[in-house]
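Just curious. Protein, please.
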Amino acid sequence: MEQALNVDPEAVRQRLDSAIAQYEELAAQLRDNAPTFPAHAVGAGFEAHGRALAEAMSRMQERNVEFLANRVEGWRQLRSLMDSVEQTDAANASEVGLR
């Protein structure tokens, strides 16, 4: 790699914080608005199918919330890594008299 890597840690943190807030809000909305599907909606005699469909919709909603939570956790780990990079950069710069 011939070019220096230049990263603005504060800009990265701001973008990560924004993404985290958006995904947390979306996850909260999904949790607060669980799908409802009445078993009788599929017609008389098919209530078991209606219950199975309702359960599948609920599981899909739960998986979507889990996906969002996993993404948020990944972004939190990236934010922590950015903090470590910034601290290491400051320590190295101090050692060579740049800070």
In short: Residues 21-83 form one domain. The first helix runs from residue 9 to 32.
